[in-house]
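AB hydrolase-1 domain-containing protein: structure, please.
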Amino acid sequence: VGAVSMDRSVSGGRGYYYSAAPVGTGMGMGPLAGQLGEWLLRAVQPPAPTPCGSPGGPPITAPRVRMRDGRYLAYEESGVPKESARFKVVFSHGFTGSRLDSLRASPEVAEELGVYMVGFDRAGYGESDPNPGRSVETAAQDMEDLADALGLGNKFHVVGFSLGCHAVWGALRYIPERIAGAAMLAPVVNYWWPGFPAELAAREYGRQERGDQWALRVAHHAPGIIHWWMEQSWLPLPTSTVVVNTTYLPNKRDAEIRRTFTADGTLRKKREMATQQGIQESYYRDMAVMFGKWEFDPMALPEPPCPVHLWQGDEDGLVPVALQRHIAGRLGWVNYHELPGTGHFLSAVPGLGDTVLRTLFGQKA
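Here you go.
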């Protein structure tokens, strides 16, 4: 955890539970050391999740469908009925989000274009079952399984917001033949993707608050202790300004939205909904997946057989615009749309939801 260098390796990660097997026995360390090892493993072990519908768990109130591994995803439909839709969209929400999030396109445009949209609680969020083996690949598989369970056809569109865009990158890597088109709004980046120049990544990483730097460092190098780390109140710095909603937001609209949502209780309600099955399987596993060691570098992906669009505000206080520009420069097949004077909360930009749909489907206003 203490390493300060930026590890550039790319490898797969699957789940982050530790075994409580004795440590050090037979190695001359003695029973006391073995007991200490067991205690340390128990100390960093995250609490068990409380799945919806389980004894003592939250109730199931949303429609749900079954995934290939037996888990259930909760979802919310909007737009026109899927039976009459011309376009079908699966939406992947961001950090702290839920199935209720969407592009916020106007009903008139959705009707005009014939758009059916379905949002879902990503694994461990809201009322979707946790997945201890969650990864970028399983995020893409969940979208595919959801589309198949709802009968959306051989091809469908995918849209992601913020951290939820890791599922879109995963779809372009693992199921490109199923994707009719993809849109990413302010997609979060992983500072350890090999395609970033080391100096550029280190510079942007270093501009974050020190507590955020350490939270990402732990998520990348030691994901198994992320819950323990985030829950330590004695640390001299906040463990993550993003988690506690204190990140500096240079854009005035972003700052005002946060003030309003804090005052009226919206942020508290969103957190309660997102984390009702446990903060480990929602927020903290999100951090481990997004900032952990990926199996592929998005900047090394081949051109997919579908259009890909990316929207980014130039005053985003959460995702460095310099890194987003680098991604767009490396991937000539990404249609990059930079929004001047705009921050991170793109769903609040007037008319942008309609623009995204029209652009994604190649329709003119």
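Notes: The first strand starts at residue 64 and ends at 66.
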